[in-house]
Amino acid sequence: MSTRFGIDLVHPGHVADTWQDWFIGPQGRRRWVIAAAGCGIVLVVIIALILPTRIRLSTDVSAIPKLRADLASLDGNLNVIRADLQALALEAKRQVRWAEMLNAFRQQIPATLKLQKVEMGAAPTPASAQGAAGQAQPVGAPSSVGAGELRIEAVTPLRPGPPPLIEIAQFMGGLMKDPTVGRRYQLKSWEIKPGAAASQGTGEREQLLVLIVLAEKPR
Q1: pLDDT tens digits, one per residue of 33-59
Q2: Which fold has domain 111-216?
Q3: Most buried pick, 4, 61, 167, 185, via CB within 10 A?
């Protein structure tokens, strides 16, 4: 029977350990303890690095449904704000156009005519347009205005001589020549009839009611 052993040539007089001796030799137990301690330290370090990240990731994953709900709520609020902004923009444009129309009326109307009411068919309520114009209460019975129509009511005192057709014609011609009115509306109809003072017989100076209807041009 022969026994295999190795000779350490670097350290004379010392018998080299084989790889089996590293585990089962005289120092094997101590080496196992050191290896186990090293593995334990490495494991603790790995757990200390991975566990917080795992917990944070789990928390973030559990928060995703709530974040999606919040996002849907914010998206709904954003849509409402966007719709409100669009409505405000349209209303601002309408107010600008309305101010330009009133300025054209103020420039073109003769001194013998007095605006009583201006109704726009596309406006939400005729009272708001009348309040914006800052005019007096309307004269005559209320009438409906079609969509895309502009109804103008004015009064003029009844005086001796022919009816004030020249002033009315100049007023309508000036409106149609005005760029603000002419590029959007065209004359649809007009009429003259007795005003409120003549029909009520209050003794006041008789007036004539002038009704002018403008229709929006097709686009």
Answers
A1: 888 888 989 989 888 888 888 888 888
A2: Alpha-Beta Plaits (3.30.70)
A3: 185
